[in-house]
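Practice problem: predict the structure.
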Amino acid sequence: MRAGYGRIDVLRDVSLEVGQGELVCLIGANGAGKTSTLKTISGLLRPRAGRILFDGAELHRLTPSEILRRGVAKCPDGRRIFPLLTVEENLRMGAYVRRDATVGADLESVMTHFPILRERRQQLAGTLSGGEQQMLAIGRALMARPRLILFDEPSLGLAPTVVETTFSIIAGIRRDGTTVLMVEQNAYAALRMADRAYVMETGSVLLEGPAHRLLDDESVKRAYLGG
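Answer:
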């Protein structure tokens, strides 16, 4: 896969695979192309070459809303909630492409999973704490009933105790059967919870393999784990 902005390619022959039910992480330095990879998969950035396949269907010619309908949701970096909408309105926005009759039931399910969101359901989302906003962003993504969730830097800007809670939530989503592809700045934590990982550098995949093996890789330790 190749993609970029303007005349500049930021992704060069990126090839990766995420199996059903896996938790796969992308790690690498700032500017390595991790976020651009997620943007391309979710349709926000159009690939210039290559194909993106999901469950055998081509995604690279579809719009972001069509990709969401196919079962691929994105939880963006910085949470990107709608600050002037209530918590409940934000959650319902996550289901805007759905036309089925179970949105209300899923809303109740998400608020059961995140009790704090039930308590805050009529509160403006912009008044929530950082950790509460992250829960809201995750809940909003779940409202699309995705089979694959793309997490972009879920720990960014959060307190350490909230980071631990966030990773626990993501691990639980995976245990419940949803496939996860995650970009994460905390490489050590990401590799500890992932099945497999890809290390990106300057728009290409430098290394790939089982996460536990990359944790022990000396080059990965030196570059990303402070070892």
